[in-house]
Design goal:
The protein is an alpha/beta fold and about 375 residues long. It has a single domain, classed as Rossmann fold (3-Layer(aba) Sandwich). Helices cover about 50% and strands about 15% of the residues. It contains 14 helices and ten strands. The chain has an eight-stranded mixed beta sheet with strand order 3-4-2-5-1-6-7-10, with helices on both faces. β8 and β9 form a beta hairpin. The radius of gyration is 20 Å and the shape is globular. The chain starts with a strand and ends with a helix. About 45% of the residues are buried.
Length: about 375
């Protein structure tokens, strides 16, 4: 069964795009067919995967006669065209036959206001009834075309209508975090905003107007898979004291503020499933303690020089070749050891996501 996973945090700079790419690649390494979707108008994921350095690269893609990006895919609904939404012609990713990119478009932000109006007034305005279900319909049709197992949605850092729609029409969601004050505060604001989004979606699923639309509003109840904490510095094999302070603070915030709110709004998986994944992590020496739900799916320290090389060669940080690493001797060996560590982290994280999503319906 296909699973749509939203990667969301309205705090910017937490590594959503990097996580989407690397995690998607690792899931694909494990035999899963994956579509990564760029829903951020900044199009960082698209630029990274396709190697675009300036606006000319995007312009050539946008000039295509076929449906090659998210804005063109949504146009039939948002521009009232007399044609159904068609699957996007996704971009194959070099070196990873199991993964495709659904490219972003800078102009998708133009649909934000229209969608916001539709989501507030769709009970009374028939002309807007097709919009709230359009994103999910587009992703589903595209995933069917490519027989995808996972759709990973890279979202923008905002609390606007598009993100509201993306999150509440997904099957699962992950919250990437950077260990600092702002991510700790983001946990607080998420605990405030997510119940409002859940209430909106609950109402939307009851509206006959939305259910009878050309693109019906889906009956989804997104479940929290966990956080991913990343880009911290390490000293003697563990996060430095300054970063550990914020890692602990985020974990407390998730446990004390976010988890109770998610539980009240039916946005959690069964406790037994989180415990099962936590036990796997402990056997793999991740050594989580306390609440299994509040523990990160995995933690990733900063990539140092690997991130620049990853972007240059359009390859994940754990799958760069010796030639791509552009190093020799002792420096090469040290970098390869670091790369192997990241490969193990993403592999374990992907295994936990597969375990959570494949066992969700059996609990």
């Amino acid at each position: 069964m296909r699973k749509q996973i939203a990667l969301f945090n309205h705090k910017g700079g937490v590594g959503k795009t990097t996580t989407t790419f690397n995690l998607g690649w690792m899931l694909a390494n494990k035999g899963k067919k994956v579509i990564i979707v760029d829903c951020d108008p900044q199009c960082n994921l698209t630029g990274m995967v396709l190697g675009f350095k300036d606006a000319e690269g995007f312009a050539s893609m946008y000039a295509s006669d076929s449906v090659t990006n998210i804005r063109d895919g949504l146009a039939p609904a948002f521009e009232s065209r007399p044609a159904l939404i068609q699957p996007v012609h996704c971009t194959p990713i070099n070196g990873q036959p199991n993964m495709h990119l659904l490219p972003g478009h800078m102009g998708v932000a133009e649909y934000e206001v229209t969608l916001g109006i539709a989501q507030e007034l769709s009970n009374s305005l028939v002309t807007l009834q097709n919009l709230p279900g359009a994103l999910h319909y587009l992703f589903s049709k595209t995933a069917e075309k490519y027989n995808a197992d996972f759709i990973l949605v890279d979202m923008s850092p905002s609390l606007g209508p598009i993100n509201q729609n993306l999150l509440m029409t997904s099957d699962y969601f992950i919250v990437p975090m950077f260990p600092d004050y702002f991510s700790a505060m983001a946990t607080e604001s998420l605990a405030s905003i997510l119940p409002k989004w859940a209430a909106w979606a609950k109402q939307g699923k009851k509206l006959s107007l939305l259910q009878e639309a050309i693109y019906p509003f889906p009956d989804k109840q997104p479940k929290f898979l966990g956080t991913i904490i990343q880009n911290y510095r390490v000293r003697e094999g563990v996060p430095s004291a300054a970063f550990q302070k914020w890692i602990d603070e985020i974990k407390r915030g998730v446990e004390k503020r976010l988890i109770p709110v998610l539980r009240e709004n039916d946005m959690l998986l069964p406790d037994e499933l989180y415990k099962k994944v936590s036990e796997i992590a402990q056997r793999q020496a991740m050594l989580f303690s306390d609440s299994a739900i509040s523990c990160p799916l995995f933690k990733v320290s900063d990539f140092n020089s690997l991130i620049a090389l990853s972007q240059k060669h359009k390859a994940p940080v754990f799958d760069l070749s010796d030639a791509q690493l552009e190093q020799v001797g002792v420096v090469l060996e040290i970098t390869k050891k670091s790369m192997q560590k990241f490969r193990a982290l993403y592999s374990d994280g992907a295994d936990r996501i597969i375990t959570l999503t494949e066992n969700a319906e059996s609990y």
